[in-house]
Amino acid sequence: MSESTELLKKALRLAKQEISKVIIGQEPVVDKALIAIFTGNHALIEGVPGVAKTLLVRTLAHVMRCDFARIQFTPDLMPTDITGTYVFNLQKEAFSLVKGPVFTTFLLADEINRAPAKTQSALLQAMQERTVTIDRKTHALSPNFTVFATQNPIEYEGTYPLPEAQKDRFMLKITMDHPEKDEELTLARRMLGKDSPESVLSSGKIKQILNPELLSRLKESLEDVLLNEQLSEYVVNIVRKTRRHQSVLVGAGPRATQSLIFAGRSYAALNGRDYVTPDDIKTMAVPVLEHRLILRPEYEIEGLTVREVIDSVLKEIAVPR
């Protein structure tokens, strides 16, 4: 294992250790959030209220010593509320830029589907190019700019479904479920004292493991994680099979292939390996593909789910040895 891979392994282990002081349980969720960050991509988080979606992103930002901003998406939110705008300064007698919350490192787009399409689209350029154009002037964002967008899986009244082009720019869909009984009991006990998750985060007890410069260097070390030719073909076969599956109306595109390769590499690094296995690809297939597939209406009526389709695809594709 190379020195850079060893450093990445240590950084991931220490980051998870600090995050666990605030986020009780939810280890698969933390892993997927770290994968999105270290691959330079974005994540869609789906979960009912109260499962610590916002707290998770705030904790990640603190541990990595990165800026954090939150946008509460509402039907009356305008694109300039996200990007910012130029305002005339009477003292300087000139227009000056008032930057919006998008000028940050970790951006939490809370309930993103509550805003109309033109407001949602204000994030597209930032997510794809890490730049923002305001009044025909382009401004660079942080190279580590990451969007975590949340959705409530229960309340759909008054929401606007995300366009397919925007959903495809999210590398992963992270599903946050209710904690297990023992985890919820631990949370209840901690809330009775001074060790509640919010208190621990605000008290400074959480170490800042990384910084933006080190994070950028660690991202590059993922290139040292080996993914052989047979596994690359395995990924391509999985994605292409989703387009031909009888129950799928719209399958995954080429960006899904890239995302599954990057996710497999990062998952291997999280598990302390410098090589990718077929099981890494299988584990990441659902979070990478779930939000990209659209089922045919007749199969949805019968109760078929996207996860079941992905499981079916994985069973049909030969696993490389």
What are the SSEs and their pairings?
Blueprint: H1 3-19, H2 27-38, E1 42-47, H3 53-63, E2 68-72, H4 79-83, E3 84-89, E4 94-99, E5 106-110, H5 117-120, H6 124-129, E6 131-134, E7 137-140, E8 146-151, H7 164-167, E9 170-176, H8 181-191, H9 197-202, H10 212-221, H11 229-244, E10 248-250, H12 254-270, H13 278-289, E11 294-295, H14 297-301, H15 306-316
Parallel strand pairs: 1-8, 1-9, 2-5, 5-8
Antiparallel strand pairs: 3-4, 6-7, 10-11
Helix pairs in contact: 2-12, 11-12, 12-13, 13-15
Write structural notes for this entry.
- This protein has 321 residues and is of the alpha/beta class.
- It has two domains: 3-220, P-loop containing nucleotide triphosphate hydrolases (Rossmann fold, 3-Layer(aba) Sandwich), CATH 3.40.50.300; 225-321, Helicase, Ruva Protein, domain 3 (Orthogonal Bundle).
- It is built from 15 helices and eleven strands.
- It has helices spanning 3-19, 27-38, 53-63, 79-83, 117-120, 124-129, 164-167, 181-191, 197-202, 212-221, 229-244, 254-270, 278-289, 297-301, 306-316; strands spanning 42-47, 68-72, 84-89, 94-99, 106-110, 131-134, 137-140, 146-151, 170-176, 248-250, 294-295.
- The chain has a five-stranded parallel β-sheet with strand order 2-5-8-1-9. The chain has a two-stranded antiparallel sheet with strand order 3-4. Strands 6-7 form a two-stranded antiparallel ribbon.
- Strand 6 and strand 7 (137-140) form a beta hairpin.
- Helix 13 (278-289) runs antiparallel to helix 15.
- The longest helix has 17 residues, at 3-19.
- It is globular and about 70 Å long.
- The relative contact order is 0.15.
- The mean pLDDT is 89.
